[in-house]
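Batch manifest, entry 17 of 40.
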Amino acid sequence: MTATAPTSLRVSAQLRLALSYALFLVAAGAVMLFGIYVVLRYVPNYPLTAANPRDDDSLVATRPEILGAVVGFSGIALVALAIIGIVGGWFLAGWILSPLRRINEAARVAASGDLQHRIALGGRNDEFRQVADSFDHMLDQLHEAFEVQERFAANASHELRTPLAVTSTMLEVALRDPDGQNYPALLDRLRTTNDRAIRLTESLLRLADANAITAVAVPLDLRQLVQTVIAENADEAARRQVTITTDLDEAPLLADATLLAQLVGNLVQNAIVHGGTPGTAIVSTGSDAAGGIVALRIESSGAEFAPETAVRLAEPFLKGAGRVASGDRGHGLGLALVDRIATVHGGSLTIAARTGGGLVVTVELPRLEG
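Output type: structure tokens
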């Protein structure tokens, strides 16, 4: 059997503060009354009369009588002070501790899993306000950390789907016809696909931390990346009857090569997959030295979008056919990943509906000077 620790009697902080206030008030009153008592001990120990007994023949109380009256009054006064201290201290402590109750409630809400709740304590800028602000800041950091983890899990599952599917296909083909395989070539393709998946995973991990992106950034030319990606997707474009037209100018920048290739790849693949059959895609790159930016612009054909729908396509899991669209149209994370990559590189993603159907997607990134 497991020993259960004894449960101590719960005494609220408000009650402890109220008792402390009462004790302090009684102690202060006791000291004051004791001082009065000591002073009165110097009263002469004989009956006092008026200065001229003929004017008033009544006698004033003696010292013992005066001290006895003081002691009696002191007892009553101390009881009254104790009552006032407890009652007044209870309400005063409740008023002072009210922010602590809000902090405690916020902690309970956060413990239940809701990291969006905030205390937002106003009023006086005291210690409770500082604790509440620090707690809100901690919730902000935790919420951001959990969002980063969720984004990584979603992006990883989305982006690793392709290399894993390729690997699975090659292995299935080899199992169906083991004697007709060129195993050295198969192993080389498997190694290449596996290496790509590893690099992609490392890039996604870096994507979770903007500081890591900065650490591995290298000078690149966006134009060359676009040319490489278009060449890699040429067969798929031909199969889907999508004509890709390019207008590529030099676009130097500082970026993570793998992540930027993923950004360009996602945009080109979106234009091919969602461009219709037949379809068109116009890809252009350029730089603005005065504005300090480089830009990638892809204008593709496809389904018609309302302007308010187009601007929301970068939201996670939001696909062109809706959040629950099915089929081979992906998981709705491609543009969300593009938006995240652009953001951590200090850039931006803009999506607009194209006249006649399709989208105009523009990515702007900081230009490499020099």
